[in-house]
Design a protein that fits this description.
Blueprint lengths: L10 E12 L2 E12 L3 E5 L6 H8 L7 E6 L2 E2 L4 H7 E4 L11 H11 L5 H11 L15 H12 L6 E5 L7 H16 L3 E6 L2 H7 L2 E6 L2 E6 L1 H5 L16 H9 L14
Parallel strand pairs: 3-8, 3-9, 6-7, 7-8
Antiparallel strand pairs: 1-2, 1-4, 4-5, 9-10
């Protein structure tokens, strides 16, 4: 594997003026962005904004029409093999084999990556993602959140320094989404650089150190959450009685995130 350039040591991902079209459809119109190492960067945009196309270019699955991009210090066009060794990509839908058990899925990927002791690798990841008890069950019996956590665990085999998560909570219920959020936060805490695409505003707000909004093929704003909020006029201070959100109610009733469901008078 080649060595990354000195310029790429502090920036995990650097994109300059990337363009991509499909015939007459201009998907990316000169995208610029930088992602710091060990951070969570959210690429926020509606359906069709070009988020997945950007990720596919960065992961060497597509070739840009113009511009340059580097991942882990390697040029995505000229050093594609080095880029692929540096990354892992988790798509919009969990790519687990539902016939295999959770552990067997992990062992399979570890063997494909030619790692020593794939069984130990699988057991360590099951423990890390709180799936040890479910490791012997077929993945087809897992909940959506468990399948997604297993999918992310599979993508981490080989310890890639950079992981792309393309709309990681698509189709998940609120409790499963929070499980995935906790997993993503833990990745960054362990030093992994995460670039995630999402169309959910609350997801970007909860997770990202930095947020870029992709609209009609261009980055229209890029900054921290505080910087983005500062773009709007200061909020008026008014007294409003705070009511619990629907998410608060849901998690309280189902016992999500370590809470205990409320007990009604009839249950007493």
């Amino acid at each position: 594997m080649s060595q990354p350039t000195e310029q790429g040591r502090d920036i995990a991902i650097r994109v300059r003026n990337i363009e991509k079209s499909y015939k007459d459809l201009h998907v990316l119109r000169g995208v610029d962005l930088e992602v710091a190492r060990g951070s969570i960067f959210a690429l926020l945009g509606s359906n069709g904004a070009g988020k997945t196309t950007m990720v596919r270019i960065l992961s060497t699955l597509l070739t840009a029409d113009a511009g340059t991009a580097s991942v882990n210090g390697f040029d995505v066009a000229g050093q594609a093999a080095d880029v692929r060794e540096s990354i892992s990509l988790t798509g919009q839908f969990a790519a687990v084999d539902e016939i295999l058990t959770g552990r067997e899925n992990l062992v399979l990927v570890a063997r494909l990556r030619h790692l020593a002791n794939p069984g130990q690798v699988a057991d360590d990841l099951l423990a890390r993602f709180s799936l040890t008890e479910a490791g012997g069950r077929k993945a087809g019996t897992y909940s959506g959140g468990m399948r997604r956590r297993l999918d992310i665990a599979m993508s981490l085999i080989g310890d890639p320094p950079i992981i792309f998560l393309d709309e990681p909570t698509t189709g998940l219920d609120p409790q499963a989404r929070i499980e995935v959020w906790q997993t993503v936060k833990a990745l960054a805490e362990n030093g992994t650089t995460v670039l995630l695409t999402t169309q959910y505003l609350d997801e970007a707000e909860q997770l990202a150190d930095r947020i870029a909004i992709l609209h009609e093929g261009r980055i229209i704003v890029d900054g921290t959450l505080a910087e983005l909020k500062a773009l709007l006029p200061p909020a008026k201070v008014e007294y409003v009685e705070k009511q619990p959100s629907l998410e608060d109610v849901f998690l309280s009733l189902v016992g999500g995130n370590g809470t205990t469901p409320a007990t009604t008078k009839e249950e007493r």
